[in-house]
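Technical appendix A lists one of the benchmark inputs used to test multi-chain prediction within the project. The record comprises two sequence entries:
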Amino acid sequence: MKIHSTLLISLVVATLLGAACITASAATSPDAPPVILIQNATVLTVTKGTIEHGSVLIKDGKIAEVGANVKAPSGAQVIDGTGMFVTPGIIDCHSHIAVDGSVNEGSISVSSIANIAEVLDSDDISIYRDLAGGVTTANILHGSANSIGGQTIVIKLRWGQPAAKLPFEGALPGIKFALGENPKRSNFSVRGAERRYPASRMGVEETIRAAFTEARDYKNAWEAYNKKVATGEKNLIPPRRDLRLDPLVEVLEGKRYVHSHCYREDEILMLLRVAKEFGFKVRTLQHVLEGYKVADEIAAAGTGASTFSDWWAYKVEAYDAIPYNAALMTKRGVLVSINSDDAEEATHLNQEAAKSMKFGGLSHDEALKLVTINPAIQLGIDRHVGSIEVGKDADLVIYNHDPLSAYAVVQKTLIDGRVYFDRQKDIAGRPALEKEKKALLEKEKAAAKKPEEKKAEKPDEAKKPEEKKPEDKKKPEDMPKMPQVDVNGGAR
Amino acid sequence: MNFSATKIVRPLYLICFLSLIYLTPLAAAQSPAPAVYAVTHAKLVTLAGPPIDDGTVVIKDGKIAAIGAAVEVPAGAQVIDAKGLQVSPGLFDPVTQMGLSEIGAVGSTVDTTETGPFNPDVVAATAVFPSSEHIPVTRASGVTEVLSVPGSGGFDSGGNRGLLAGQASAIHLAGWTMDEMQIKRSAAMVINWPTISTTTFDFATFSRKQKPYAEAKQEYEKQVNQLTDVLESARHYAQAMGHGGPSDFERDVKLEALVPVLRGQLPVLVFADRARDIRNAVEFCEKQKLRMILAGGEEAYKVKDLLRSKDVPVILRPVLTDPDEEDDAYDRLLSEPAELSAAGVKFALASFDNSFARRLGQNAANAIAHGLSPEEGLKSVTLYPAQILGISDQLGTLQVGKVANIIVTNGDPLELTTEVKYLFIRGQLTSTDNRHKHLYEKYLNRPKPSPGQKPT
C-alpha cells in the first residue's frame, strides 16, 4: 500500500509538472487547434494510393478522414493545399540528434549499460532543422564505437517541448550493435590507450557471443530464482542484478530491438548466425552497405535494412557501397529504409529516397515507402505512423512540389495534429529574432564595457563574438567528412 | 603493437582493390577513334541563348562543329536520335579532390595534402590517378570536368591543410593519361586562409578546449605574417629572375611557383567561410595584388557588397550543409546562391568532395528551389565555374568551337531522377559504366541460394 501511495503521489507530481511544462512552453510550441482540414492537395497516402485534389481531416491529433470529398466541420482550421503535396511524416531510422554530448560510451566493447534516453537534449537546433525537412520521428542511436553499444530510443520531433515529451509513446526501446572497422578501431586509435579487444572481425563476433552467453546464464539464474519464489521457497538469495546484462536479456525476450551498424557481407551473415544461435532477431541492419550482396539471406532472416542513399568510399568497408543498394534489397524482398546518420542529411531524406528510382528503378510509391512506412515497420510503430490512414497519428508534411524531387520545399510539418514547423511563419519571424539577437549583443557589449571587468581587453575585441571553425561543427556519427579522430570518442 | 599489423594489412586490401580496377574493362570507357557525331531532334540548352526545342548538334574533332535548329547532318556522322531528350553542357565541379583520394580512411590511397604550411610548387595533376573509380562514377551523374584541388580537405586531412597548399588542376573526367585529361594543369593557387579559432581539440584529454581570443588572434596574425613573408620573398625572387639567367641566382622551386601568382597570371583560390576571414582575405589579396577567387563562402552573403565591388567570384560549398551557427536560419545556405545572384556576385557551386561530387546537380536544384532562377542554377555548375577559372573560351556553353563536353539527358540534368543517356567528353562518346553499375549487375544476377543451402 505504501508503494502504491508513493506511486500515486509521484504520478500526480508528474502530471502537474507536465502541465506546468506545457504552459511554460505554450509561447514557443505551435498552436494545437482541435480540428484541421488540409484541402485540395495531392495526398500521397503511401499505403492507400494517391488522391488528387484530396483532403485530410485531423481531429484530436489523429487522422480522422482522408478522401476526395471531405467537408470542413464548423470551426475547423482550413489549410489550402492547392498545388501542394501531403505525405506522412518522414521517419529517420538512424539519427544522433537531440543527444547531449557524446553519442559514444567508447571505453568498453560492451556498453549496454549506457542509455541514450537519459541524455536527450530537447534544445538541439537539429530537431528544428530536421523538422523543417519533414522529419517527424527519429530513431536516436548510440554510436558505433562498440560491438555492443548503448540503449537507444525512438522520439518524435516535438520542438519546443521538454525532453520528457520527446519519446515516442509505446515504441520499443533498442540497443545499438556495431560490426567491422569501427568497433575494431581500424581507422583511429586513442592516444595513450592500449589497443582494446576486439581488433578483428573475428573478435567482434566473439565479443557478442560472450556477452550473450553471459546474458543467457544470467537470465536462467533469474528464471530459476523466480520459479523457486513462485513455489513458495523461503530464504532465497536473488541473483545479483547486472545492469549491463539486463538490456541483453530484454533482447533475448524480444522486448528490445537490435539495431546493428554493419557494412560488409561477411559480418552481416555473422550477426544473423549469432542471433540465430541465441534465439533473438536482429530488428534492423544499419548502413548495411553490402546488404545487396546477401539480400536473400537478410530477407530470409526477416531482418530490416536501413541504408544510405549514395555514400561510399570513405573507408574500405564502404568501397563496395552502391546507390542501387536500397532498390536491389527491396527487389529481393528485404524491408528497406533510407536513413541519415547526420542532422543535415535528415533534412532531405525525401530526396535521398528519390534516388532509388534512378538507381535500381523503384516505383514512386516504393521510393516514398523507404522513408515513411518501411522505417515505421522497422521500428514497430507502423500502427501509429508511416502512412496517411484514418486513426493514425496526424504526423504530416506539406510540400510545394512532388516530394521525390530536388525542387520540393517543406511548407509545414505536423506532429500529433499540431503544426510544429511552418515555413511562412519561420520567414516572417526572422526580423523579430534578428532584433532580439541584436539587443542581446548590445547588452553583452554594455556588460563587457564595465571597466572593472574588462580592463585588459580592447573594446573592439570584446564585442566580437567567438567564432567556430567549420571543422568544429557537430559531426555526424558515421560521416565521411570528419577528421580522423572522432570528437565523440571515435566511431564512423 | 597491433598497429604495425594493420599497416601491413591495409596495403593488402588495397592491392585487391587495385587489381579490380585494372580488371575493369577500360576499353569500354571510351570509343577508340575521334568520330563525327550528330545528336538530332534534341532540346538544346546551350546557355548561350534561348533553348532550341528541336535542334541538332554536330561534334567533330573533339569540338562543337555546328549547333542549331537548322543544322545539316554531315555525311558519315554517327547519328544519335535524341527525340525527347535534352542536350546541355556537361556539369563542372570546381572544387573536388578527384583522383587524389580513393578511399578516405586509407592513407596510402590519399594524396590530397602535403605536410607543412607552404607547398605552392605541388600540382594536383601530378597525382591524379586516371584509373580512380571516382571518375566514372562521377561522370555518370553528368559531371564532365572538375577542378582537382590540393589541400581542400576531405576525409583524412585532420584539419591540417597548409596555408599555401599547391596548384589546382582542371581536368576532364575521361582520358587514358593525364595528358589527355588535362584542361589546365595549373588553374589556381590554393590558399587556406587562417581563421581565428577559439576552440581547439585536445587529443591528450580527448576534449574541446577554449583558447582566449587574444591568443587565437595572435596565432592568426602570425600565420598571415608568414604568408606575407613568403609572398614578399617570391616577389624579390621574381625580380631576381628578371635580371640575368638562372645561374645568376639560387633556384627555389617553391618561390618560383609563386611567380605566376604575383604576376597576375594565376588566380588564388582562397578558402574562407566566416565574414571576418573573407574581409581580411579580400583586403590581403588587394594589397598583394592577387587575383582572388573565394572558396567556401558560408558567410559570403554578409560581405556581398564587398565581393561585388572588388569583383571577387565565389565557389560556394554545398548548399546541403548545416548552417554554422545555431541561430542561423535553417535555410541559410540553401538561400545564399539566390541572395548572391540578386546582389550581382559571380558564383559557382561545387561539391568540395569526391564521393559526393555526384550530388553537384542536386545542390544546384536545391538552390533553385530556394529562389535562384533555373538558368542561373544551371550556369552555376557549367558556365560560371568555367568563367571563374578562366576557361570559358573552351567550356561552359554549347557554342561552335568549344570543347564538346556534352550531356544528353532524359530531362532536367539537375533533377534527382534524371538519367544521363549519352555523355561526350572532348567530343568522344564516353561510357557511363562504372564500378557501382558493375556491382549492381553482378548481384542483380546472383542466383537464389540453392534449396540445399540453408540461408545463414
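The longest helix of chain B spans residues 213-242. Residues 102 and 109 of chain B are 5 Å apart (CA to CA). Comparable benchmark entries are summarised in Table A2.
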